[in-house]
Amino acid sequence: MKVKLDEKIEPIFQEVIKRNPGEIEFHQAVREVLESLGPVLVKHPEFGHHKIIERICEPERQIIFRVPWQDDKGEVQINRGFRVEFNSALGPFKGGLRFHPTVYLGIIKFLGFEQIFKNALTGMPIGGGKGGSDFDPKGKSEEEVMRFCQSFMIELYRHLGEYTDVPAGDIGVGSREIGYMFGQYKRITNRYESGVLTGKGLDWGGSTVRTEATGYGTVYFVDEMLKMRGESFEGKVCLVSGAGNVAIYAIEKIHQLGGKVVACSDSNGVIYDPKGIDLPLVKQLKEVERRRIKHYAEHHKRAKYVPNGNIWEIPCQVAMPSATENEINGTDAEKLVKNGCTAVGEGANMPTTPEGIRVFLDAGIAYGPGKAANAGGVATSALEMQQNASRDAWSFEYTERRLAEIMKNIHKLCYEVTEEYGTPGNYVNGANIAGFIKVAKAMVALGLV
Ligand code: NDP
Ligand code: 2IT
User: Is 260 a catalytic residue?
Assistant: First the structure.
């Protein structure tokens, strides 16, 4: 059953649906935030007066462009590029670029909308934005990826700048793609403007820990939730979906904290290893060879590969969805709770459907929504910008300490807000309300712009 929206908020939501037809993921993300905001309008009538909710749901700027490129056979290919500059009340637009065939405006807008509140929670001076393309990097040669990235940047560069809009990676975009885009930006502008992109390689302006940050940060967040319940990762059986950047470093940190990850996945299937996932092997397969997770089973006879399997059917105590949106539905959530799962930390953005979220909240398990739990990635991007601005490069240890501190603070902020608003431990409300209030206050202060 859906939570009823506050009577002042319901018409705002209806207007969002009307103005953005067919963008179902965007509607879903907006609704989830608006469900938390009724009591905020009571405490802060000025937000209603200034129409902050209506303004926050409308991006400041949306850019859609053609990306033509030539494949290795010399054939012309056309993709569509996007950058949605959602909100710059707290700082330059900041958020990743996603290259995946499912990308369309509704996906970029849901991600950009979530990014506003996530970035606010980090406490760093960054606004919210997101971009990407329906380009599918799978099966493309190195040269094709480079040509695509260069063509993408030929249009995007004019909208970027270290004080304007600072993209980074997301699904299908890692340091290789950031490198090609940075190289093209540098060439077009004739400026070595390190702070215009984050997630750069360590040799050319990147930050230590950025690669690890989202996965590590999500595990830190779950660790904080567990501590509130007098528990820890020690000895816990865990599931981490996906086998990309976020998943790999979530697994690494869980293992460092004494937990055991028994399964991970990709869009083709699930790998189950009862002895615990062999992470060096996953890194070799995914980061070096860029192959599929099914090849894991060729190296370990004890491991089982299930094509099109459902990872959430495997019993666990901690689940970390780290692949994509809506990967845990209501039935999956029920199964997880029934099998003894007591904590969920979202490495991915919006990986749980509204029905799934309801199941977790009703069961009273520790549920860390993406906006709070996976904010370590963008927070470390902000640390990268800080290093670039001061022409400095910090050690791994120092940067990781900063990340751990930021995640602790986000957890504390969210928890305190849930107490203040009478729903202790409901981190959905905590993240939505705490993030919203920060942005809303800045928007009021900056006037009607
Ligand atoms: P990667 O491209 O490195 O890895 C994505 C992983 O998820 C792959 O294993 C991929 O499998 C799987 N996946 C992607 N799309 C789908 C799909 N439609 N169905 C099933 N599986 C899918 O991306 P990241 O690890 O960077 O991103 C994962 C999630 O984390 C995303 O939701 C992203 O928005 C979020 N996130 C990322 C941050 C970052 O810093 N990178 C920061 C915060 C959140 P396959 O190879 O088969 O496609
Ligand atoms: O969803 C996210 O927070 C990201 N993909 C990272 C964004 C960033 O700017 O580092």
Answer: no
Phi then psi for residue 272, to 5 deg, are -115, 125
User: Residue 95: CB within 6 Å of ligand 2?
Assistant: yes
Condensed to tens digits (0 to 9), the pLDDT of residues 147-206 reads 999 999 999 999 999 999 999 999 999 999 999 999 999 999 999 999 999 999 999 999
Count the neighbouring beta carbons within 10 Å of the beta carbon of residue 138.
11
Q: Is the CB of 245 under 6 A from ligand 2?
A: no
Catalytic residue (choose from 94, 109, 118, 130)? 130
376: number of Cβ within 10 Å: 29
Beta bridge partners of 79: 67
Tokens, residue 396: 């791994």
Is the separation of the CB atoms in 371 and 432 below 8 Å?
Answer: yes
243 alpha carbon – ligand 1 mean position (Å): 8
Q: What is the pTM of this model?
A: 0.98
Q: What are phi and psi of 379, to 5 degrees?
A: -60, -40
Counting ligands in written order, which one lies closest to the CA of residue 91? 2
Q: What percent of the chain has pLDDT over 90?
A: 99
Under 8 Å between Cβ of 209 and 399: yes
Distance in Å, CA 321 to ligand 1 centroid = 10
Domains and CATH numbers, the chain: 10-56 (no CATH), 61-192 (3.40.50.10860), 212-373 (3.40.50.720)
Does residue 381 line the site of ligand 2, with CB under 6 A?
yes
pLDDT per residue as tens digits for the range 318-353: 999 999 999 999 999 999 999 999 999 999 999 999
217 in ligand 2 pocket by Cβ < 6 Å? Answer: no
Give residue 130 CA to ligand 2 midpoint distance, Å. 8
Which band of pLDDT confidence, cut at 50, 70 and 90, is reported for residue 1?
A: low
